[in-house]
């Protein structure tokens, strides 16, 4: 199942879903939510309801950006019966400096919405302590809206710093030359998602 990020409708994953279906035989599902107006509690409860209706022996979870944090919060509150792996794409597990800078303005905070305000506007010390294996793909092509807000000190995808994607407890992290948005269009990213879901590791 794919969980989209802030200001995204879910359709941005169409090409990625087609590749995973064609190359791995997956049946992709998309969880839609209102990323600005909905609270974290409301979104995670809705995600759990959708997951509980899936009749499959194995369910993998894929979150882009904020979507990864929604998956984390959902699994912390509502354990799943089916086995499967989790993969984060550009998820700012340690908080987002770009979001904090944008949220410093009243209009920016309103545009970020409730879920982001709860999860990204402060530096977090999260840890992955769930039984499911977690993989992380971070981008290193530094072109995106985040560069208009601040100067990143290290490698970044234009919106999220590579250092912000780290979370203790993750099994593996892979950095690829993609931006925060273009990672959803990358053939390599799609292949590595399949590798991790199938084998619990990324390719050589």
DSSP, total strands: 6
Rg calc: 16 Å
Contiguous helical run count: 6
Q: What proportion of the residues form beta strands (DSSP E)?
A: 5-15%
SS-derived structural category = alpha/beta
What is the 3D shape?
globular
Strand order of the largest sheet: 2-1-3-4-5-6
Distance between the termini: 25 Å
In helices, the fraction of residues equals 25-40%
Task: Give the helices and strands, then pairings.
Blueprint: E1 2-3, H1 14-24, E2 30-31, H2 40-52, E3 61-64, H3 66-77, E4 86-89, H4 97-103, H5 106-119, E5 134-139, E6 172-176, H6 187-199
Parallel strand pairs: 1-2, 1-3, 3-4, 4-5, 5-6
Describe this structure in words.
The protein is globular and about 45 Å long. β1 (2-3), α1 (14-24) and β2 (30-31) form a beta-alpha-beta unit. Strands 2-1-3-4-5-6 form a six-stranded parallel β-sheet, with helices on both faces. α1 packs across α6 (187-199) and α2 crosses α3 (66-77). It is an alpha/beta fold. It starts with a strand and ends in a 5-residue tail after the last helix. The protein is built from six helices and six strands.
């Amino acid at each position: 199942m794919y969980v989209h990020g802030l200001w995204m409708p879910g359709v941005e994953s169409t090409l990625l879903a087609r590749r995973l279906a064609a190359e791995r035989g997956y049946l992709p599902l998309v969880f839609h939510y209102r990323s600005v107006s909905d609270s974290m509690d409301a979104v995670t409860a809705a995600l759990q309801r959708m997951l509980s209706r899936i009749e499959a022996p194995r369910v993998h979870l894929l979150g882009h950006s904020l979507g990864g944090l929604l998956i984390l919060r959902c699994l912390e509150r509502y354990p799943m019966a089916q086995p499967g792996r989790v993969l984060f794409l550009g998820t700012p597990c340690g908080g987002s400096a770009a979001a904090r800078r944008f949220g410093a303005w009243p209009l920016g905070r309103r545009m970020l919405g409730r879920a982001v305000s709860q999860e990204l506007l402060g530096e977090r010390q999260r840890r992955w302590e769930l039984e499911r294996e977690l993989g992380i793909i971070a981008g290193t092509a530094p072109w995106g809206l985040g560069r208009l807000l601040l100067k990143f000190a290290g490698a970044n995808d234009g919106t999220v710093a590579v250092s912000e994607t780290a979370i203790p407890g993750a099994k593996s992290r892979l950095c690829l030359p993609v931006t925060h948005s273009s990672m959803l269009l990358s053939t390599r990213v799609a292949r590595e998602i399949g590798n991790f879901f199938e084998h619990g590791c990324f390719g050589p």
